[in-house]
Amino acid sequence: MAVERTLSIIKPDAVAKNVIGEIIARFEKAGLRVVAAKMQQLSREQAEGFYAEHKERPFFKDLVDFMTSGPVVVQVLEGENAIVQNRELMGATNPKEAAPGTIRADFAESIDANAVHGSDSAASAEREVAYFFAAEEVCARS
Ligand code: IDP
After folding, report:
1. Distance between CA 57 and CA 140 in Å, rounded?
2. Which residues are annotated as a binding site?
3. Binding site for ATP: which residues?
4. Distance, CA of 28 to CA of 30 (rounded, Å)
5. Which residues form the Nucleoside diphosphate kinase-like domain (predicted)?
């Protein structure tokens, strides 16, 4: 399997709950490595650009409101099969449907406030990593 990179965001609800460390521990225990990380307050423009593919969806304004409601932790995770592995660790978008033991099942409240984001494909991962990090900010570990 190929070593991949994927973008992870610990969303404002999880930051507010003070579970940043517990979430990162799950990535590390699964063999993923943090190769870039920063905490930041997203502007509306940044959140809208990041979620541009959802612009026409009815929940877009709520999503942007939520993602700008407090600081987030943005990370690049690296590892074997990192994109799918991260999605499996996260669980389903709606925490009520997320498998037991997943991050969203354990830490998320609702489909809006669902604790984490993870890139859903290689193309998304490439775009999303570049959206938040310059090449020299990503520290190769493999
Ligand atoms: P994902 O985060 O699991 O990849 P996406 O379908 O890409 O899910 O949606 C992006 C984000 O938009 C979700 O994480 C969630 O916060 C929000 N979202 C998705 N669908 C809904 C919905 O039906 N109502 C409210 N928010 C939604």
Report:
1. 36
2. 11, 59, 87, 93, 104, 114
3. 11, 59, 87, 93, 104, 114
4. 5
5. 3-140
Name every residue whose Cβ is closer than 8 Å to that of residue 47 and which is 6 or more positions away in sequence: 63, 64, 67, 68
Specify the residue for token string 């990593």.
129
- Please check whether residue 103 is in contact with residue 114, taking contact to mean a CB–CB distance below 8 angstroms: no
Beta bridge partner(s), residue 8:
75, 118
Report if pTM > 0.80: yes
Q: Is the pLDDT of residue 104 over 60?
A: yes
Res 123 pLDDT > 70 = yes
Span from the CA of 107 to the centroid of ligand 1 (angstroms) = 16
State the catalytic residues. 117
ipTM of the complex in this document: 0.95
Q: Token pair for residue 49?
A: 């650009």
| CA pair distance 43, 22, nearest whole angstrom | 26
